[in-house]
UniProtKB/TrEMBL annotation:
Region (Regulatory domain): 392-510
Gene3D superfamilies noted in UniProt: 3.30.160.270, Aldolase class I
Quaternary data: Homodimer.
Catalytic activity annotation: 3-methyl-2-oxobutanoate + acetyl-CoA + H2O = (2S)-2-isopropylmalate + CoA + H(+)
Top-rank EC class of the record's enzyme: transferase
Domain Pyruvate carboxyltransferase residues, every copy: 5-267
Name assigned to this protein: 2-isopropylmalate synthase
Gene Ontology MF terms in the entry: 2-isopropylmalate synthase activity; acetyl-CoA C-acetyltransferase activity; manganese ion binding
Species for this entry: Candidatus Pseudothioglobus singularis PS1
Protein's pathway: Amino-acid biosynthesis; L-leucine biosynthesis; L-leucine from 3-methyl-2-oxobutanoate: step 1/4
Family per record: Belongs to the alpha-IPM synthase/homocitrate synthase family. LeuA type 1 subfamily.
GO cellular component terms, A-Z: cytosol
Documented EC number(s): 2.3.3.13
Coiled-coil residue windows: none
């Protein structure tokens, strides 16, 4: 039997630190539920002291998720630890993750502390965390550039104080695989009480080596990997969950350990994170990119048709791809709809929610002949995003002619009252956004506008992501429709709703 590799997902904390990837509480809960369904062992839900929004998001995730351990991040400070402890109070299973920098440059320039002070602060914080849970993780931040002797000293002290997981972060993505692996091995060998803790790798991707460094750590004794869906994260991102999980599973002969992850949930989680954050997945991204399993060259296609394993090392369906198989059509009933969504991991909380989603499905089926899983997921995602709307798109009429001025006539319901406006410019989307904006009192700055097709073909649903900045906060909105001008209007209205509700940006950069 192979040893277990713990998967610690930090999409909701380190992933969210990526500029523009801010998520609302409800969005975090939706992502957390999909991680739970995939059997992620530990979900780092946020940095509780960072903001009221972050604290409440951790609390909400701790309440909603039952099967994964919920972790809250804290600097090695009393007030951080107490806030983290409070945020996970209601979790079925909880963890506090506390960190302090250990590289010379960080201790001197950032903390202004001596190494002795850093050790005692780490010990004090780990001990304080034991008041809230016996599951404590300690990270020497910037370990990738820290002195190994000092790491041995502080980690031994942290384990003695009660740390049960020791995470080795390559905070600035500076490490090289053989070196990171050697450091992991040396720490485990030299620290006298290392057998009392699980060692973990937390790698950033600045040199494109996050996954390689994490795997090298596993080969050298790490039994937890910290990662994010789609590799989301600050700068070049974090270790990608889907890549490490599939590398370890596909090459059991090399790693000799495996995760508990139900990989068939990977694609759905990837799409959810991409749609909520507006961070589009590149087509050639391993495992979850649109081309990851597409064979174009004739010689490859021929080989795969004769014997799949000639060119395929994994099965697309094992990570959630379904070959775009037709799942439902115009005549499918409510039960077929419900049970297909249940297979995709979507459960409805009430009959009303099911009816609403089903009626969206029927409307779509009238416009689009073939309905795929991706369409269903997009529809449900849209239904969930509309739950807390202040403004709603009632109707949109656009006249567009090439080379001419385009005009958009928009009607919105704002707090229940209908208001209409029109605007004209050279582009239909621009005219639509201007018309919508003229009906509200705010003037946010558009940071991102992107369109992608949900399935193949010109009758595909078009998904639009809009990112707005307002008073220093960032708000993402999504919209789907078979008409991309309508998707654009929906996405814009969705983001404006968040601005108007003044959803606090749950962003842990403090
Ligand atoms: O990259 C890093 O050092 C971190 C720590 C908080 C673990 O994210
Ligand atoms: Zn990090």
């Amino acid at each position: 039997m192979s040893e277990k590799l713990i998967i610690f997902d930090t999409t909701l904390r380190d992933g969210e630190q990526s500029p523009g990837a801010s998520m609302t509480k409800d969005e975090k809960v939706r992502i957390a539920k999909s991680l739970e369904k995939m059997k992620v062992d530990v979900i780092e839900a946020g940095f509780a002291i960072a903001s009221k929004g972050d604290f409440e998001a951790v609390q909400a995730v701790a309440k909603a998720v039952k099967d994964s351990t919920i972790c809250s991040l804290a600097r090695a400070l009393d007030k951080d630890i107490d806030r983290a402890g409070e945020s996970i109070k209601n979790a079925n299973s909880s963890r506090i993750h506390t960190f302090i920098a250990t590289s010379d440059i960080h201790m001197k320039m950032k903390l202004g502390m001596t190494p002795d002070e850093v050790v005692s602060q780490a010990v004090r914080s780990v001990k304080r965390a034991t008041k809230f849970t016996d599951n404590i993780e300690f990270s020497p931040e910037d370990a990738g550039r820290s002195d190994t002797d000092f790491l041995c000293r502080i980690i031994e002290a942290a384990i003695n104080a009660g740390a049960t997981t020791i995470n080795i972060p390559d905070t600035v993505g500076y490490s090289i695989p053989f070196q990171f692996g050697n450091t992991m091995k040396e720490l485990i060998e030299r620290i006298p009480n290392s057998d009392k803790a699980i060692f973990s790798a937390h790698c950033h991707n600045d040199l494109g080596l996050a996954v390689s460094n994490s795997l090298s750590a596993v080969l050298n004794g790490a039994r937890q990997i910290e990662c994010t869906i789609n590799g989301l994260g600050e700068r070049a991102g974090n270790t990608s969950l889907e890549e490490v999980v599939m590398a370890v599973r596909t090459r059991q002969d090399v790693f000799g350990c495996d995760t508990n992850i139900d990989a068939t949930g990977i694609l759905a989680a990837s799409r959810l994170v991409s749609s909520i954050t507006g961070f589009v997945v590149q087509p050639n991204k391993a495992i979850v990119g649109a081309n990851a399993f597409a064979h174009e060259a004739g010689i490859h296609q021929d080989g795969v048709l004769k014997h799949r394993e000639t060119y395929e090392i994994m099965k697309a369906e094992d990570v959630g791809w379904n070959n775009n198989s037709l799942v439902l059509g115009k005549h499918s009933g409510r039960n077929a709809f419900k049970s297909r969504l249940s297979e995709l991991g979507v459960e409805f909380e009430s009959d009303e929610a099911l009816n609403d989603a089903f009626s969206r499905f029927k409307t779509l089926a009238d416009k689009k002949h073939d309905i795929f899983d991706e369409d269903l997921q997009a529809l449900v995602s849209e239904a969930q995003t509309e739950l807390t709307e202040i403004i709603r798109l009632v109707s949109l009429k656009v006249s567009a002619e090439s080379g001419k001025v385009n005009t958009a006539n928009v009607t919105l319901s704002i707090n229940g009252d209908e208001h209409s406006a029109s605007a004209s410019t050279s582009g239909a989307v621009d005219a639509t956004f201007n018309a919508v904006l003229s009906l509200v009192d705010i003037d946010p700055k558009l940071q991102l506008y992107s369109v992608s097709n949900v399935t193949q073909g010109t009758d595909s649903l078009g998904e639009v992501n809009v990112r707005l900045e307002h008073e220093g906060k960032v708000f993402n909105g999504q919209g789907v429709d078979t008409d991309i001008i309508t998707s654009s209007a929906k996405a814009y209205v969705h983001a404006l709703n968040k601005v108007m509700a003044n959803v606090e940006r749950a962003h842990p950069q403090i």
